[in-house]
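Aim 2 progress update. The chain analyzed this quarter is reproduced below.
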Amino acid sequence: MKFSNVLSLVPPRFRKKKIALPIAGVVVFLLLLVILSASNKENVATADVHRGEFFVSIKNSGEIRAANSFTLTTPRLRYGQLQIIYLIPEGTTVKAGDVIVRFATTDVDKTIADKQSELSINQSDLDKFKADRDLKLSELDGNLRNAELSYEQAKLQVEKMKFEAELQRKETEINLERSRIAFEQAKKTVESQGIVDKSEERKLTLKLQQTQNDLKRAEQDKEQYTLKATLGGLAVYETNWNTGRKVAVGDSPWGGMSLVSLPDLSRMQSVTNVNEVEVSKVKKDQAVKIKLDAFPDKEFEGTVASVGTIGQQRDQSTTKTFEVIVDIKGTDPVLKPGMTTSNEVVMTSIPGVLFIPIEAVFEKDGKNIVYKNSRAQEVTLGTKNSNFVIVTAGLEEGDKVALRDPEALDARTGKPAPEKKL
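Predicted structure tokens:
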């Protein structure tokens, strides 16, 4: 410790009045300071100087999500307000075809029953019409046949009367014309009745088909009252904005409302936001190291899948960020949607270099200083990342450097003062 530093610790009243301290007291005082200083230096945390591959990277927090996810929504139906009567427990791992949500079917069941009754009545009406039509056509066909025979008979009678008296011949011809007219009318009656019957049958058939279609649609709609998984995944409840909580049994969701999402856990991603100052350094296919806040000992490899092109302003900050999506390699049961991640995007790597924590470097008089064995050592620095910096001169592998300036003592506490970081 420098003597000037020692004098600075002498109480001001003695320095101002120039009162001499007893020699023994001064010696004891100096010894205490030396011991205290040595103790403080011994208690300063240190870090080893490593040699290895140095990664030039940036770190940002993010969140886990599934690359593929399907959301089940409330069907848009015509049978009143839906009500949830069953929900698969949240967090259940499901497979395609599993039942996820069921709604009460009271209204659609009533519609189906009404349509079935209506269909039965329509079918009866159509059957009755066909029976009446067949009977009427049979009568008309008989009348037509009789008229035809009468007409033929009248023609024969006219032939017989060629050589009879004029009066009798005229009477026969009149009967012939009457028979012809009756026959023609009978034919037209049959034709007209056929047209009327076809129209009525078509009307009843269409009514029957409409009822059949309504019944079929109601039965199909009833199938929508049961929502099934279209792919495997993890059941995650969505928020019911009417209640401000997650959907639950008894809720009456509106049509199209999101109910349960099914993220596919076979392919996961980490979504992070990179500051606009650094986003230009992030490129597609760059390597990413991913750690979970909940499992700090686990590290996953990933690659940058996409970099957003439109900046977003987050909260009240004026700085904009860009969304970066990272594909996580492989699968692991601990990866769950919504988990917080630490993402280190690696821009490049430098092999075989010395590097130390950034906290171990201090700037003094324009020089970069480290403390090796409690002694100041000037160093030459290279590239740095979020936590470490390369040392190109001044240190060797295996050296230990202090993480706090051992010479910077707080005059009030006598403990190391906060360092000025690089």
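The CA atoms of residues 106 and 227 lie 17 Å apart. The radius of gyration is 49 Å. These observations will guide the mutagenesis experiments scheduled for the next reporting period.
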